[in-house]
Specification:
heterodimer, A: 7 helices, 18% strand, B: alpha+beta, 7-stranded mixed beta sheet, 15 helices, metal ion binding (chain A)
């Protein structure tokens, strides 16, 4: 478990190096790693490209290529992610009926449990465990938020004076 | 929603109230109470019909007894009034359905948090009747110093000759002698200031809109700064009739997209088929130049994340040289949001007067180089409006939220909706304000504590 989370943290560091929000994610099926990814929000200019969504895409692609029924397949998938899945990702994972989600640090801004308990909206809920190597995950985030987002428009103070 | 029906029930309620209840003092009060009653009545009606109409759960959502579901059903009862009874009676042909949708003059309904519709909640406090009015300001000063109101800072300290001392849970023992003892012990100067003490109800939270302010005023005066924008939202007056015509046109386009795709499988498509199918269609519009930036139709059966909304968001990213899903066969960057060439031509043919295409994307470094301001290039979906044939699910709602989508406009309510305000209130980061200045929609992001993002639905035909 710790090993897989370390793998996810590696992916998060990779994201940080690419000036993305440092979140990494690994999907496992039994003892096999079936998908691994990180945030690609800035690269795709699509803020919904979180690590979890990228992994879901990988698994769906794999299922399609091998004619596997993804609905049954996802029921045995465990998700390791360095930061608590956001509301959107939590909803997506709920929708897919994944077996379990294990995260590093909590997400007090957008967390799918901390901010809004997404499980309330779905019938089949996954098991959720947190606080695995949380400090490492948090340290990466802190490092990221020290810098600035290279793609963001200028501050709203300027913007307001324009309008 | 049939207006006549609502009027009828309002009249009935007014009659009932006139006979039964004499304690209303002003006309205004009467109106508010009538509204509340009508809402409650409709709630019950809605709940009853909801049970009848419930067609089973989609997407593995929780059954009826879930608390959120009930809460939301109550909310929507208020909003939807008696419309659900008309759900089944759609016009027979697609043409008449579309005509009704686009040409209807019915208002669009802004969906606000539950807090705006609920009656105010109250809390109990001790007040003291001051013996000499001249001492009032001195006592207030001293009390504010020694016993600040903290959670109740929205209340005025004094009202007429009464002064709030503290919430009742401040003292363990609730007798008048104990209050006098407490005052003598902690603020001996005020030993002889009060005639008597009593417990009264005061508003527990600050009023957000004028209706609530008036409601509060009956028990105790509050500090209140009216927010014009919220008032407009509450009264459904945010958009002018011309803007609503535009909204309906784009909503028509969202349906047109659904029809375009669904007709491929079923040439004899009826409106009821769209209602029954578990699909959504999305149109993303830049309100600044009223042009369609991206559209999308659901692919959730094959790819459970590719709800139309998520696809549309990715299509917007494609117009900004990004995008993750390979779903488009158009070369031109500013038209890449349109899914396919066939659909683009179809929509151009159906809507010759609607502008289609995204504004040119300029990267941050190019902006700086050419000394342009950030507003010269689109950034994600910031400020865009999104039109969907049905309410977005939790995933999609959050997806649009982190994208800076300004306004959701949708037609059909979902069984298990995720009202965006459920988390807009909890995620106070990307609050956006929209205002209409000289006919142009102006938006700006702001960090506010109250809800500004709007979620809007059409009332039924």
């Amino acid at each position: 478990m710790v090993d897989i989370m370390k793998k996810a943290l590696e992916l998060a560091s990779e994201a940080l190096a690419a000036q993305e929000v440092p979140v990494g994610c690994v999907f496992t099926f039994g003892s096999d790693i079936i998908a691994q990814s990180r945030n690609t929000v800035n690269a795709t200019r699509n803020p919904t490209r979180h690590a979890e969504i990228n992994c879901i895409d990988t698994v769906l692609e794999y299922c399609k290529l091998n004619s596997i029924d993804f609905k049954a397949y996802f029921k045995n998938v465990t998700v390791y992610v360095t930061v608590e899945p956001c509301i959107m990702c939590a909803a997506a994972l709920n929708n897919l009926n994944v077996k379990e989600v294990i995260y590093g640090c909590a997400n007090d801004r957008f967390g799918g449990k901390t901010v809004l308990d997404v499980n309330d909206f779905y019938e089949h809920n996954y098991m959720l465990t947190g606080n695995l190597l949380a400090d490492d995950a948090m340290a990466l985030l802190k490092q990221f938020y020290k810098g600035t987002n290279p793609n963001a428009p200028d501050s709203k103070v300027k913007k307001q004076s324009l309008t | 929603m049939e207006i006549t029906e609502v009027e009828l029930s309002t009249n009935e309620v007014i009659e009932g109230i006139k006979q039964a209840d004499k304690q209303f003092q002003t006309g205004q009060e009467k109106i508010f109470s009538v509204l509340e009653t009508v809402k409650t009545e409709d709630n019950d009606k809605w709940k009853a019909e909801d049970k009848e109409l419930s067609t089973g759960e989609k997407n593995g959502v929780k059954p009826q007894n879930s608390t959120i579901k009930n809460k939301l059903a109550e909310q929507s009862g208020e909003l939807e009034s008696s419309s659900s009874s008309k759900r089944m009676k759609y016009p027979e042909t697609l043409e008449s359905f579309m005509a009704n949708l686009v040409e209807s003059k019915r208002p669009v309904k802004a969906i606000l948090s539950d807090d705006y519709y609920r009656p105010m909640s109250f809390t109990k406090v001790y007040v003291g009747q001051v013996k000499n009015v001249k001492d009032l300001s001195k006592i207030i000063l001293l009390l504010n110093q020694k016993l600040p109101l903290k959670d109740l800072s929205h209340l005025k300290r004094a009202c007429r000759k009464e002064i709030i001392l503290f919430p009742i849970n401040h003292l363990n023992c609730q007798t008048h002698a104990s209050i006098q003892y407490y005052i003598e012990e902690h603020m001996n100067e005020l030993r002889d200031s009060f005639e008597y003490f009593k417990i009264i109800d005061v508003p527990a939270v600050a009023p957000k809109i004028r209706k609530q302010y008036v409601e509060c005023g009956r028990s105790w005066s509050c500090n209140f700064h009216p927010n014009k924008y919220l008032e407009k939202l509450y009264a459904d007056e945010l958009f002018s009739p011309t803007e609503i015509v535009q909204h309906r046109l784009f909503m028509g386009m969202a349906f047109e997209i659904a029809i375009y795709y669904m007709k491929k499988d079923k040439p004899t498509l009826e409106p009821y088929d769209i209602l029954n199918a578990n699909v959504n269609a999305t149109v993303v519009v830049d309100p600044l130049d009223q042009s369609v930036v991206a559209v999308a139709f659901d692919n959730r059966e094959n790819h459970p994340v590719q709800h139309s909304c998520m696809l549309a968001i990715d299509n917007v990213a494609k117009t900004q040289t990004g995008g993750a899903w390979d779903t488009c066969d158009i070369d031109s960057v500013n038209l890449r949001g349109m899914c396919s060439m066939d659909l683009l031509l179809h929509l151009k043919h159906k809507y010759p007067n609607i502008r289609i295409g995204a504004k040119k994307y300029i990267s941050k470094s190019n902006l700086d180089e050419k000394k342009l301001s950030a507003s010269d290039s689109p950034y994600l979906c910031t400020g865009f409006y999104i039109y969907m044939i049905r309410e977005p699910c939790v995933m999609c709602a959050m997806g649009t939220y982190i994208n800076g989508i300004l306004c959701h406009i949708w037609n059909w309510k979902e069984d298990i909706p995720c009202r965006t305000q459920d988390f807009t209130l909890k995620v106070p980061r990307f609050e956006v304000e929209v205002s209409v200045v000289n006919g142009a929609v102006v938006y700006r992001r702001r960090e506010a504590t109250s809800i500004f993002r709007i979620d809007i639905r059409f009332t039924h035909r």
